[in-house]
Amino acid sequence: xxxxxxxxxxxxxxxxxxxxxxxxxxxxxxxxxxxxxxxxxxxxxxxxxxxxxxxxxxxxxxxxxxxxxxxxxxxxxxxxxxxxxxxxxxxxxxxxxxxxxxxxxxxxxxxxxxxxxxxxxxxxxxxxxxxxxxxxxxxxxxxxxxxxxxxxxxxxxxxxxxxxxxxxxxxxxxxxxxxxxxxxxxxxxxxxxxxxxxxxxxxxxxxxxxxxxxxxxxxxxxxxxxxxxxxxxxxxxxxxxxxxxxxxxxxxxxxxxxxxxxxxxxxxxxxxxxxxxxxxxxxxxxxxxxxxxxxxxxxxxxxxxxxxxxxxxxxxxxxxxxxxxxxxxxxxxxxxxxxxxxxxxxxxxxxxxxxxxxxxxxxxxxxxxxxxxxxxxxxxxxxx
Length: 384
Hints:
This protein has helices spanning 2-30, 37-55, 59-65, 71-96, 101-115, 118-128, 143-158, 165-181, 197-210, 215-228, 255-266, 270-284, 318-330, 334-348, 366-376, and strands spanning 195-196, 240-241, 285-286, 292-293, 303-306, 310-313, 350-353, 356-359. It is 61% helix and 6% strand. A two-stranded antiparallel sheet has the order 1-2. It has a two-stranded antiparallel ribbon with strand order 3-4. It has a two-stranded antiparallel sheet with strand order 5-6. By secondary structure, the protein is mainly α.
């Protein structure tokens, strides 16, 4: 009886492996157009249409797209990230496909309206005990909310939008003052939590996008980052700092955070970003059937769950793999980028209808769809 059960188990495993191999072969064949802006145009536009239908709506409806089980804070964060990443998509494709700019500007204006709504900024209000937009003269951080809003408006302005310039002025002035007044040259996302370096980088990107006024702060931050905030084992920017701006002993270096850091650096310091990208691949890259990024470079995690990385399976970090597409696209690392997109397709499985396209996983985590498309369109401007 035991031998029979073993045979059935082996047969089941064999069938599963065959199905996976068929899926891999099908996906590889279906991705023949990937790797060029022209070849990806239709797919990018269809995914953008799907995101528009889900994000460019009312604040209440957008928040309802977020999983209820993650709580108010993460619902707010995921909604904010969905907005900022999709705004970046719209700015990217406006530069690459200028005929889309007029419509994209209107959608970005709507996204800004959603982000400044009381409903969306509630999560940050609850954590800090004050409204982030009604306390700009104060000293509390609010860096995550304010930086994403400033980044969205800066991207809106970069393609011709002028409607929210006064708000952008106030946001950047506030963040710059708070950063320079802090002992750490960094701001905490929430009270009584470590400094999350990727959250700080959004603020640095927004200040960089503003123009020359805040370049001294951007330069000062980057100098400190290169000298004081790189991990001794990997050379990558650390994931966490304490409130003094010091590295935290035994804090993990996360693949998802490292990949996101690398993406943001492509927007402000391409040379530093390239060196970080090479280190990211050296320490976190996983090749094979499921190419992607590991969440932990120094240990295996065959099955786990992380609120930022997502479900970790076979060592792979879903968020890390998605974020790695950004620098891979920017540096035209086409083979690796295609491998990352293949893994995303195997795991996410795209569906199309009514001239819209998305990964099925977007029905669970809309923010993942927005992130993947923002990363995929993170190209330096290339001619058609």
